[in-house]
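Build the 3D complex.
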Amino acid sequence: MPRYLPYLLLLPATVFLIIFFLYPFTQVAIESVTSNGEWSLANFQKATSHWKFGEAFKNTMLLAALVVPIQLVMSLTMATVVQKLQKGRSAILYIFAIPLGISDLAAGLIWLSIFEQSGFLNSMLVGLGLIEQPILYLSYQSPWIILFAIVLAEVWRATAIMMVIIVAGLGLIPREYGEAAEVFGATRWQRFYKVTLPMLRPSLQTALILRVILAFEVFAVVIALGGTQMPVLMSETFNWQFNLQDRGVAAAYAMVILAVSVLFTLIILRALHVPKEART
Amino acid sequence: MSDTATVAPSVRKAGRWVFVSGIVLLCVWTLLPIYLLMVNALSTPEEVNGFPKSFIPSFDLSSLRFFLEFEGVLNALWNSIRVAVVTMILSIGFGAPAGYALSRFDFPGKEVFRFLVVMTRAFPLPLLALPLAVMFLRVGLDDSVLGLALVHTTLALPFAVLITYSLFSGIPFELEEAAFTLGCTRFQAFRKVVLPLAAPGIAASAVFAFVISWNEVFAAAVLTIKNRTLTAFLMQSLDWSPLHLKFAGAAALVLPALIFIFAVRKYLFAMWGIANR
Amino acid sequence: MTSFKTFLGAVSGLALTFGAVSAQAEVLFWSTQAQPVEETQKMRDEVVAGFEPGVDYQAPETGPWLTRAQAELSAGSGAVGILGGLHGDLTAVRGGLSDLGDIDISAIPADLAAFGKLETDQQKYIPWMQATFLMVANKKALDYLPEGADLNALSYDQLIEWSRAMAEGEGSPKFGFPAGPKGLKHRFFQGFLLPSYSGSTVTEFRSAEAEEAWGKFRDLWQYTNPASTNYNFMQEQLVNDEVWLTFDHIARISEAFNSRPDDFVAFPVPSGPKGRGFMTVVAGMGVPETAPDKDEAKALIEYMLKPETQIATLRATNFYPVVAVDLPEDVPASVKASGPAIEAMTSAEDALPVLLPMGMGDLNGQFNQVYVDTFEQIVLAGRDIRPTLEQQAEALRALMNQAEAPCWLPDAPSQGACPVN
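Done.
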């Protein structure tokens, strides 16, 4: 087979990304390391020395650290549960996949209507007679409840994408593998842990990388539920770009997001390395 | 299934019960927020602002009607569909060959390519929108369906590449090799052996592309004027609108997406055919 | 296999098929104002509809608005005919606005028109409409009004007392403040609280009087609904009864009056030792250098300044005219409520008008941020007032020096950059 075949296959995507991503990206990247027309790290200094930077960074990491593991477990559960189903499989799968179609803006709106003081949660609790007065959940005095609400909303909104990738991956694992393990007396858990998970590695890798990267760009849901009390890297990027109108600092923030994403992508690639034999 | 044969019937029954209630719980978890959105969208403004809220809508259509009668909403819907379909085609057309190459070959620059692809999702689009808009204005792609679809493709392409990569990785290469020994060319082997197996997954990543494009608002707001998409049309002013219209607008946006996913659910999950072969 | 060449070919082919928009006669009015869908719709149907040969009124969020404006200016060509926005929005693109000196603006008061020069010797934008901020109370809140307090001559101390009584009487705080991400909190500190106590926005930023003002606000905050950090438009919380008493921009409380006209009252902002500080905000219309047809855009601006268009704009947006008009009887409930309150506020004996930040240019947003940061540190994070003011005064001084902006009212005129004492 011709040696240039892989390159030929990569060419369209490469050319496309060079024009529509690399070219504009380079301009923004240059903006982040120049100030008044000279090379300088002033933008990064300005970004990191602002008192909100640390908090935004911490919140972003914390959210990702809380949300992604929950989503991983949930999506694996959903996918395996669906696989076990005899009847109604496609209906259940459709239901599980529904949040795929919900934009983050709409998701923020929905969860705000649940958690706000005159929202559905309080309506239910008052209706059941569990509380007398509506409780204030999203208060700046209780950042942990805000965090909890954001985690719930993010888990709800973005688990489906991992689930669908994992479902697709599960579908490719030949049945014989599990049956063989069964013959050798493996328990259900052993089969999942020793056969399914390793076979699922490529899909897990993909699902985790995509999800982690998107988690670092979490924005609309956080703004809706956390207001000004939960600055994240992306909201600060917006703030510097459009409110404070300092494109250099905004670009610096974006570079930070990129750097963190690249770092975690490397970690995931290494941790879930797909050995060559898995591909043959 | 014979795997539970060694387990006592009572345990088996209990397990069954946990299993079913687990599924019910997951369904409620997924559907309840959507249901609440619909309740709000189908209530009168007074009910939306009132407390305590009813969990059963009064089926007041006035808020929804406001959007349906909004001038140009059908046009925006049509634009959204066109942009999303072009995005779907472009991202699979560019992404699937790359995913195949990544899964089947070892070659210098492979890791670099994967990074470039991942990077595109790791950088905030709203900052890229400015240089992209300048470029489009100069080239004449401004305010066109294709221009916006190209931007949305940069968002969807990483998904397409990575998902198809993991799909192809999961299909044993021996299958193709077997086809070679039977006299197939590489392309024939791909078309007759790999593609049928991967097609459902490819369809799934196409659905992603569609949904990503459907929900993207920032680039759509910057790059379209006459050809507004439904999202740019409804969503960007929602934050500033009274509550009942916020919910009606969100519902008007969510509904077509749900219908779309419903319509393509067969493709999205047809891979079950493989598992049960 | 697709190659670069055929790809480009496909692009141009598709571009034709999908029809990139060609020159149109309609004027594109790209505006940050009237963003709520209903207001946008009214702007189209009732305000600009009368202009021949037609107007495409678009009201995106500030982010897309600014991005497109900047993109068109740096591409050197574009579709936008008129850029509409607040003083601060237009400041951000002032380098690309053309001179509108040939439009007759004699009907606009000279001091208002002067804002539109944006510190140049050209008329960069034409004032379009103006607004201010008011207090609103649910009528249920009036039961708690402190004895002897007059709604039209309220003091900050009485406001605190009122909010305390309400919080204690109702069991939860009923005063609300727009401290959310889109809330206009910075205006309250710049234009209302600080001037009322220190008679200054900039110069006396770290004075003992300013310290007192922040202390008062901290007192008030005890009786403020803690969800306020999520509040952007107080009309929402007024309508759903989460809040009974609040302060906000008149366009952001209009929905309360229009949906429940009998339940709310509007009244002037409170006063402090130095007077009743209040700020008026101005929206304007500019024509970018890249406008497809500048003459038509200018004709649209002239149309927007006609008294009948200005009244229609008031109905649509709750922003008041910039030219003298006779208001008809049948204005919306929100206008009926806000009109007398504004009149009472501006004509009060202790009225202390505060101007919008002037001469800050690109630093406008960062200037606002100083006040927001001060608020978040003192009130939300609970840091000590004195050291916070010292530290933020440094930031403020650096900004003033960088912008070389002279003082504006109520600060005393300065030679060179406005000092921070």
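Chain B has two domains: 9-63, 72-236.
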